[in-house]
Amino acid sequence: MEFDMIIHNGLIVSDTTVLPLGNEIGVKNGKISCIGMSLPSGPKTERVDAEGAYITPGGVDAHVHLAQTNAPTGDTWETGSRSAIAGGTTTILAFASQKRTDTSLIPVLDDYYQKARGQSYADYGFHFILTNPTRDILQKEFPIMANEKGVTSVKLYMTYEPMKLTDRDLLDIMISCRALGLTTMIHAENSDMIALIIEGLERNGNTDPFYHAIARPRIAEDEASYRAISLAELVGAPILIVHMSSKVAVEHVRHAQARLLPIHAETCPHYLFLLSENLKSKPSDHFCGAMHVCSPPLRHRVEDLEDLWQGIANGTFTVFSSDHAPSKYDHPGGKKLGLVNGIPMFSKIPNGLPGVETRLALLFSESEACLPPAEARLSLPRFVQLTSTNPAKMYGLGGCKGSILPGYDADFVIWYPTSSDQAPTEITQKMLHHGVDYTPFEGVKIRNWPRYTILRGKVVWNRDSGKVLGEMTYGQYLKRGKGEVLVGKSSLTPRGMLDNERDMWMPKR
Ligand SMILES: *[C@@H]1O[C@H](CO)[C@@H](O)[C@H](O)[C@H]1NC(C)=O
């Protein structure tokens, strides 16, 4: 058999180990055919020389908002997915967002699918954002979504007026998800605490962007995270708490994991690199803090960042996602919605930061690939787990995405060799490919960048030539299977309950 592509002279990183130099990857028909020494080339084999650099699986970014109707000024599928591959991410999971008035998910998925189809440089799938979980949806449509459409995860909000769900809603949804093997993602912040604080801040005229970070204190995240965990424990459902930013909330997760509960946690680049001081106004621009408005907000102290780095290193976090949520800054329908008659009103600023392109380089730069062991924040296999393998497994793409193994899609990032001086040393808006007019990471130091991105055996990004080589029609819709539970186990008896107590009231599967 003749390989279509052989990648040689690289250090292949898996989720458990780094293979020694000399191991090569043979690619055939877009899939990894084998890994071995001195693979034979044929006349048509494309040989890619990694020049001694690390090769990691193509990034899987499981938390990307693109072209949602509630954020019209940010990225289209074209710009968002282009940005992904230029940053080494070959798979993105975006959201199909149900409105309260939508009584069926089927047209919602169709709508979002039509926006993405033929418009994506990266492979993609959807999670549902559920805001109106009718009985019909839970009982009739969930099985269709899981078994026919390949949508095997839902995201639930405990905050935001247009989207928040009651605890009862959360429980009903978790029970349905558990029965079908769907993954439940939860945005955990206490809505009433936040509403109370916003009201008080506004009453006192404290409406600058910085007050966004005051309006959503850590305790709101801590309480809601613990509540989400308790709800999940009651019904024995696995959950993932998304974009965690607070030490105490993460401790709740850690304690739950220690009790073998299937509680997963996600964090994002901005909670590791950025502080709330970014929300303050500058003399040149009173409103610029709006560029860093996201929820949960950026926290105040360097120690807050350190706490999260600990969870990255010690395994508390299962996945590391961008939560790419793009809104243009200098646009009346974007962040400037928060300028009301010229007066900053933080509560009206659209939430979210762009970051799909910068996610991998930021974390890789802090890994043992770029730093001596004493300074490195994480190992290379841990980098691969967090950015590719775990999200792929959790969201039903195991066996296809997120690992460098025979039979998997030939999706790779080839980095610059450690000795190279070709990689950029700091992030600037100018080098990015998204449709947003700023990056929240402007000036943040990095130590490497994806040199080549390969998607299903095709080089779609070559930084040396400064080019996105892929085509917008190349990205494929991914019908996902059931997600794997990567932490703990389901069906433990909740603390203090008798062993058969839950069976007395739990709906039969
Ligand atoms: C791991 O990190 C988390 C988050 O900072 C922390 O709560 C936990 O105590 C750490 N666990 C261990 C065993 O170090």
UniProtKB/TrEMBL annotation:
Pfam families membership: Amidohydro_1
Top-rank lineage group of the source organism: Eukaryota
Modified residues (N6-carboxylysine): K155
Assigned GO CC terms: cytoplasm
Catalytic reaction annotation: 5,6-dihydrouracil + H2O = 3-(carbamoylamino)propanoate + H(+)
InterPro entries in the cross-refs: Amidohydro-rel, Hydantoinase/dihydroPyrase, Metal-dep_hydrolase_composite, Metal_Hydrolase, Metallo-dep_Hydrolases_sf
UniProt cofactor(s): Zn(2+)
EC number in record: 3.5.2.2
MF terms (GO), sorted A to Z: dihydropyrimidinase activity; metal ion binding
Keyword Glycosyltransferase: no
Residues annotated as domain Amidohydrolase-related: 54-460
Keyword vocabulary terms for this entry: Hydrolase, Metal-binding, Phosphoprotein
Family, similarity comment: Belongs to the metallo-dependent hydrolases superfamily. Hydantoinase/dihydropyrimidinase family.
Record protein name field: dihydropyrimidinase
Organism: Cladophialophora immunda
Lineage: Eukaryota, Fungi, Dikarya, Ascomycota, Pezizomycotina
